[in-house]
Amino acid sequence: MISTIVSRFAENGPTVHITPIEVFTIGSFSITNSMLYGWISAFVICVTLITVAKMAKVYPRRGLIQLVEAGTDFIVNLVGSSLGSRQKALKYGPYFATIFFFVLLNNWLGLLPVVGESIRIGDTPLFRPFTADLNGTLAAAVVTMVLVQTFAIKESGFVKHVRHYFAGSLKNPATYLFGIFEIFTEFTRVISLALRLFLNVVIGEIIISVFAFLGKNASPLTSLPFVILELVVAGLQAYIFVMLSVTYLSVAIKHDHDDTHVADEINRSDESNEGVSITTGKRVKVA
């Protein structure tokens, strides 16, 4: 009996396209349904955030502007706690807040009823969530990591930033081996950010489609709890995406900050006939 139900479900079950499908072409350039909906989502997000920014006042206001201000303040505080500086938080916070709202709103817009298999051109779904396309999340991850590297170089300088990958004596061959491994780790972070966001969005999309199919005429009721769950998951994934990005920036800056701090301690110690213990970081008297 169970095998019969499974076989029928497999034959007549819901169709969920994981890969993007070409909708039309511009010259030799292929436009997929995820790219098309990504452009629409980007336009809606830009108009919404610009409108909210123009509505901002000194005194707090209710409605959408309050949610955007709360989200922005949350991300700025996150950046400040990670980097240990309110000044740097105000400097870099707007970039990470933009990434947060872009990922969050793309995730939420992907849950609208018109997205997915609802609207078709022939057998091709017209709209597909941008963050449900691995190409989309990979592009977001690449742009984010380029920003992280740019900010790290801006804070430390190009030479010091590259040098922190090769910690230790440059005369030691192992330094170069570990340095190459550290640089390779930066590329794995891009893949990690992209895959984590992509898989969570796609799995949520599949779960909603399955329970909508099982509910048949009552599909709005059977899928509603999972849509609500995905709203929460969408916010959580946007937060994780930004949190990891800020952490990567913090690690890159912290290395250089620690090296500069130790160098300053050594310079001050030389002037007072004192030394700095490499193991403890404390000053010791030099005879």
Tell me what you see in this structure.
The protein has 287 residues and is mainly alpha-helical. It has helices at 2-12, 33-55, 64-83, 86-109, 134-156, 158-163, 173-215, 219-271, and strands at residues 22-26, 29-32, 120-121, 124-125, 274-276, 283-285. The longest helix has 53 residues, at 219-271. Residues 1-6 and 257-282 have low confidence and may be disordered.
In whole angstroms, the N-to-C terminal distance is 88 Å
Structural class: mainly alpha
Q: In percent terms, what proportion of residues is strand?
A: 5-15%
Strand order of the largest sheet: 1-2
Give the oligomeric state: single chain
Instruction: Count up the domains.
Output: 1
Q: How many distinct beta strands?
A: 6
Calculate Rg over CA atoms. 25 Å
Shape: globular
Mean pLDDT: 81
| Main sheet makeup | 2 strands, antiparallel
Order of helices and strands: HEEHHHEEHHHHEE
Residues in helix, %: over 70%
Unreliable segments (pLDDT under 50, ≥5 consecutive)?
1-6, 257-282
Count of DSSP H/I helices: 8
